[in-house]
Automatic annotation (TrEMBL):
Stretches the record annotates as Disordered: 295-317
Domain Sigma-54 factor interaction residues, every copy: 327-553
Keyword Transcription regulation among UniProt keywords: yes
Origin species: Ancylobacter moscoviensis
Protein's UniProt keywords contain Transferase: no
Low complexity bias (residue ranges): 297-306
PANTHER family documented for this protein: TRANSCRIPTIONAL REGULATORY PROTEIN
Full protein name: Sigma-54-dependent Fis family transcriptional regulator
Keywords of the record: Activator, ATP-binding, Nucleotide-binding, Transcription, Transcription regulation, Two-component regulatory system
Length: 644
């Protein structure tokens, strides 16, 4: 049987007679690998790996785009991570600057870690490198890779374009699973496509926050964005709009919108609401439909509503901020939580939000800030799970110029100082490394921050909101989370129920349908709606919005049918939601059976991680979210001895 390397070279020699017209992938990329880069398909060698200094430089160059990217990476991973994919973001040179993955998974490839360089020149045909080279969506399934070393992997990458049309990054998912079905990978590609569209739109709308943004749909269903000023002059266009409307690929001077469309000033007049339907007629007579979003404005004081609307999806990119009432919907427990938060809004007590992934913890934090006395001050967020451990400390507490290799000359203020006077949201606090928990506790107790490499102490005044999907009681019992930090964060504890538990679940689902499918005139069949109501929604609101958005794209005609949902029957039991059970002291006054189950689960987790890390205790400790010293103590407590 011909091996992969021979097949690649044989195909390239005979490709002109074998490759169908218009289907030149991956042959065009394979040809570049051989003729332009001088690569051999049977010889890969180690991929280039840059150090922390180069990673920091690459991240600094991306500036505030990473703030949006970290949130979208986290959301994307909550969906595709369940079937083994990891999520990465690379810059335009192919350097991996962010990763979200389960490194203990059998499907993980350590070549995806931050610092790895996936340019086509070095890695051959692959999702990231070929996507960046061709500046187009790229899916590489198993033996479509150039190098034989990668034929068990499948990856899908989307190019990310800045508001000025420049290519700045690639959003990618990868899995090492030789049994992965091509159909499954094709669906995962569509999930990445939607994430990339959301991320690009969020950056575009923030860039043109003081302009009206027109979101129009191309005939193929791809959205494109235009930014228009008060005089109807086009001042910005994303890459899709530039292609559709034949605009320059780089910067252009503002010009009248009516050079592109039949004059209709009333179409975009008085766009003060979050979004309003829009139809513009091109000069050739063809219509473009979509929505117009008014300029972002400072929110007016919010008053409680008598008929609150159901909660929007956590990732929904609305121009107007979500209110606490919108977040709560008609769910009695959430309405009670909102009432408590409003009464305590002037106390400055820290808030701890507990709930499964996707229930809207981040949305609650932003809504609370918007309605709090600190609304005019900054809202600053840090995802403790999405950021590498080596960078959390400098990101959170700041650093002086030259404090470490790769540090900026002017230093960095850090998130605490950036949030001074406002709100600091610490998402996934349960995943914060133990040694950083100690320093965080000192800052919370003293109100003082000392940047790395600086003896200068700065006093800060921040409203701290922390959130996690972890069971902190178990993390404390395992020695992975400090009990004193828990009590310092738990000034107010808010438990957010899962979607399947909400009393207003039906209203939330109907609202999701209206926001996604309804705005395009697409309805949901009774059978499909029944499936939506019966599904257990392990991914909560995020999963709900993804499923409905995906079905909207798959639907033929104006009706979403059951098969468009791509949902398997909900037959697996779902883990019970987080409870607000009080923590006990070091004695852990819990039933012996529960303690035994926790110990057994911890022992198994430790052994699995040590095996996955091939005996590397430091790596296993990082995976478990604890220090090496703590891991050694837990090894001793469980009677585990190291061999060899």
């Amino acid at each position: 049987m011909m091996d992969h390397g021979q097949r690649v070279l044989t195909t390239l020699r005979t490709a002109p007679g074998l490759v169908p017209v218009g289907q030149d992938f991956p042959y065009r990329s394979w040809s570049r690998c051989v003729e332009e880069y001088g690569l051999e398909p049977g010889r890969c060698g180690a991929l280039p790996l840059v150090g922390h200094r180069e990673i920091n430089v690459a991240r600094e160059a991306l500036e505030d785009k990473l703030i949006f990217a970290y949130e979208e990476i986290d959301f994307l991973y909550s969906i595709v991570g369940r079937i083994g994919y990891c999520v990465t973001l690379t810059n335009a040179e192919g350097v991996t600057v962010a990763e979200r993955a389960d490194r203990s998974s059998r499907y993980y490839s350590d070549t995806e870690r931050p610092g790895s360089v996936w340019s086509e020149r070095h890695a051959g045909t692959n999702g990231v490198g070929t996507c960046l080279r061709d500046a187009t969506v790229t899916s590489v399934y198993q033996d479509e890779h150039f190098f034989e070393d990668f034929i068990e992997m499948s990856c899908a990458a989307m190019p990310l374009f800045a508001p000025d049309g420049a290519l700045w990054a690639a959003l990618n998912i990868t899995v090492r699973n030789p049994k992965l079905q091509r159909e499954t990978h094709a669906i995962a590609l569509e999930v990445v496509r939607k994430s990339a569209e959301r991320l690009s739109e969020a950056i575009f709308r923030r860039t043109y926050a003081n302009r009206t943004v027109l979101k129009l749909w191309k005939p193929d269903g791809q959205p494109c964005l235009l930014a228009v000023d008060a005089d109807h002059a086009v001042v910005g266009a994303d890459a899709a709009a530039r292609q559709l409307l034949s605009l320059p690929k780089t910067d252009f001077s503002p010009f009248s919108l009516w050079r592109l469309f039949a004059r209709d000033p009333s179409a975009i007049k008085d766009r003060s609401g979050p979004s309003l339907p829009l139809e513009l007629i091109r000069l050739d007579g063809s219509p473009l439909r979509g929505y117009a979003y008014g300029p972002l404005r400072e929110p007016a004081p919010t008053t409680p509503r008598t008929r609150p609307t159901p909660a929007p999806a956590p990732e929904a990119a609305e121009a107007a901020p979500v209110t606490l009432d919108q977040w709560a919907g008609t769910e009695p427990r959430l309405k009670r939580n909102v009432d408590i938060l409003r009464r305590l809004s002037r106390t400055g007590l820290p808030i701890l939000v507990l709930g499964e992934t996707g229930v809207g913890k981040d949305t609650l934090a932003r809504a609370y800030h918007t309605e709090s006395p600190r609304a005019a001050q900054p809202f600053v967020a840090l995802n403790c799970a999405a950021m590498p451990e080596t960078l959390i400390e400098s990101e959170l507490f700041g650093y002086a110029g030259g404090a470490f290799t790769g540090a900026r000359k002017e230093g960095s203020a850090g998130r605490f100082v950036q949030a001074h006077g406002g709100t600091l949201f610490l998402d996934e606090i349960g995943d914060m490394p133990l040694h950083l928990q100690t320093r965080l506790l000192r800052v919370l107790e003293s109100g003082e921050v000392a940047p790395l490499g600086s003896g200068k102490i700065q006093r800060v005044d921040v409203q701290v909101i922390a959130a996690t999907n972890q069971k902190l009681e178990q993390r404390i019992a395992q020695g992975a989370f400090r009990a004193d930090l828990y009590y310092r964060l738990a000034g107010v504890v808010i438990n957010v129920p899962s979607l399947r538990e909400r009393a207003d679940k039906e209203a939330v689902i109907d609202d999701c349908i209206a926001r996604t499918a309804g705005r395009l005139g697409i309805r949901v069949s009774p059978a499909a709606r029944r499936i939506l109501l019966q599904h257990c929604w392990p991914g909560n609101l995020r999963e709900l919005y993804l499923v409905v958005s995906r079905a909207t794209s798959l639907a033929e005609g104006k009706m979403i049918e059951s098969h468009d949902l791509l949902l398997a029957p909900s037959v697996m039991p779902v883990e019970a939601p987080l409870a607000a059970a009080p923590l006990t002291d070091a004695g852990e006054r819990r039933p012996a059976g529960m303690r035994a189950r926790v110990d057994e689960a911890e022992r198994a987790a430790i052994l699995d991680n040590i095996e996955a890390c091939r005996g590397d205790i430091a790596a296993a400790a990082r995976n478990l979210g604890m220090s090496r010293a703590t891991l050694y103590r837990r090894l001793k407590a469980h009677g585990i001895t190291r061999r060899g």
